[in-house]
């Protein structure tokens, strides 16, 4: 999946991955894709929960060698 | 203003005081529903930290002004972020150092009885609902169902000025990593567990079934190892001075142990039936039952410990009076609920079959205990 912006939160721990992701989402247009890269295991559930509570959509996620990648599509402002 | 950081111990002291703090848990709702800080007088609320990022005034209105708010998260980082936001708005806030990670490793000892020749201490690991015991007599101690953080027992032994001579596990635990073997190794004590719990184990242990009676200290302290299978086939209970029954995971204040963790639920349920109606039934009503878990914080009694007299347990739990074996089996196998997280790996570690790092051990143990079953 091609992302419009890539947020590198590798090596950062909670709450930074979500803080950075949220900031990046603000810059995007509705329908654009953000890719978040994180190595913080604890953020995995939090991130999914955050996406659910916002109007964004989690398009896909994968894990490779301890690096989690989330692809999120920006939703309409509520 | 700066945000204060408090330890798990300090939080617990505040929880026990007449003026308990308000807990704001900022983990995600799933984690909170699964496992949270509980106490008799504790009020807590769950608002995930990411909700604070999109500053909505409604969120702040849920929080009390004028009461200390302790912000809690998984490891402390997110709690600090939220606490700083609250601090700026004039709330009285502190955070729990290392969050739920620290809470999962917090222990508090409670003395159940102290008399000439016998002192009995119950260790509460509040976050897990795990209970362990130290029985002291004349400078010697027996530790039962020690948890992984063995320093807690070493510290207590030093404080009581006693030597730990015997260490036992009532059964092979599935919900937490035992500290029994480690504690015995560190103190030179004998480690006892039933042989049938340790099949294929690499560890050296003293077969508990060979010792019907263990005496130490004054001749007064007689500990009878009674086979009470049902939760596991090799589960035993210890009867101290015919008065205190350390019942392991077989009998709880609020019900019986779950028989399903070995994959032989119905078979082990029959064992549990035999235990209840043959082994435990002759014991008198005044015997105190002291289990290895509590299922609910409310089980901590007025005196501050978890325990009840057998008569009371018989009166309050219908399952203890369900003599119809079919009905009994249906009941104990039908209400077991979710299994403890990671229990298969934990069992392997407790048998000495695998070894894990401290980090991995901590990770495996995070989460609630699910060994007790309530039969409503």
TrEMBL record, chain A:
<dbReference type="Pfam" id="PF01206">
    <property type="entry name" value="TusA"/>
</dbReference>
<comment type="similarity">
    <text>Belongs to the sulfur carrier protein TusA family.</text>
</comment>
<dbReference type="InterPro" id="IPR036868">
    <property type="entry name" value="TusA-like_sf"/>
</dbReference>
<dbReference type="InterPro" id="IPR001455">
    <property type="entry name" value="TusA-like"/>
</dbReference>
<protein>
    <submittedName>
        <fullName>Sulfurtransferase TusA family protein</fullName>
    </submittedName>
</protein>
Automatic annotation (TrEMBL), chain B:
<dbReference type="InterPro" id="IPR001763">
    <property type="entry name" value="Rhodanese-like_dom"/>
</dbReference>
<dbReference type="InterPro" id="IPR051682">
    <property type="entry name" value="Mito_Persulfide_Diox"/>
</dbReference>
<dbReference type="InterPro" id="IPR036866">
    <property type="entry name" value="RibonucZ/Hydroxyglut_hydro"/>
</dbReference>
<dbReference type="InterPro" id="IPR001279">
    <property type="entry name" value="Metallo-B-lactamas"/>
</dbReference>
<dbReference type="GO" id="GO:0006749">
    <property type="term" value="P:glutathione metabolic process"/>
</dbReference>
<dbReference type="Pfam" id="PF00753">
    <property type="entry name" value="Lactamase_B"/>
</dbReference>
<dbReference type="GO" id="GO:0070813">
    <property type="term" value="P:hydrogen sulfide metabolic process"/>
</dbReference>
<dbReference type="InterPro" id="IPR044528">
    <property type="entry name" value="POD-like_MBL-fold"/>
</dbReference>
<dbReference type="Pfam" id="PF00581">
    <property type="entry name" value="Rhodanese"/>
</dbReference>
<protein>
    <submittedName>
        <fullName>MBL fold metallo-hydrolase</fullName>
    </submittedName>
</protein>
<dbReference type="InterPro" id="IPR036873">
    <property type="entry name" value="Rhodanese-like_dom_sf"/>
</dbReference>
<dbReference type="GO" id="GO:0050313">
    <property type="term" value="F:sulfur dioxygenase activity"/>
</dbReference>
